[in-house]
Amino acid sequence: MSRLTERWSSWTPYVLSILRIIAGFLFLQYGTTKLFAFPGAVMPGGGTAPLASLAGFAGAMEFVGGTLLLVGLFTRPVAFLVSGEMAVAYFMGHAGQGFWPVLNGGAPAVFYCFLWLYISAAGPGPWSLDALLRRKPGTASAT
């Protein structure tokens, strides 16, 4: 392995943390649009989704799950749950509109489904509350 490849590979856990943070931030915005119409309304007719509706439940999962994933708290189980939510979202909301996700509007759901499935297996990375809580007292860093 070349020195450059070796050096770049040493960044893998940190890049995993960056991926989780950015994806969590983007994902929670799907929830804020459904629950708070922020940064804009996406519901038909504008406004917010009723919390007791399927869209409201999905928005709550996306907002809470996205927030927890952003900070890296309970990362593995939360990522697994929202991965399943995205699979359900794809099959209930998009798959019936044709095979190709890019044409049926389901590409983000497919992408997030597999991204969160990967994060549930890979873990949060070192820059997370999970890693901070796992650290033993007197330990300088967690990798």
UniProtKB/TrEMBL annotation:
A Pfam short name: DoxX
InterPro entries linked to this entry: DoxX, DoxX-like_oxidoreductase
Coiled coil: none
Record-annotated membrane-spanning stretches: 51-71, 109-129
Subcellular localization, as worded in the UniProt entry: Cell membrane
Primary location recorded for the protein, binned into one broad class: membrane
Membrane topology: Multi-pass membrane protein
Keyword Lyase: no
Top-level taxon of origin: Bacteria
Keyword entries, A-Z: Cell membrane, Membrane, Transmembrane, Transmembrane helix
Family that this chain belongs to: Belongs to the DoxX family.
Protein name in UniProt: DoxX family protein
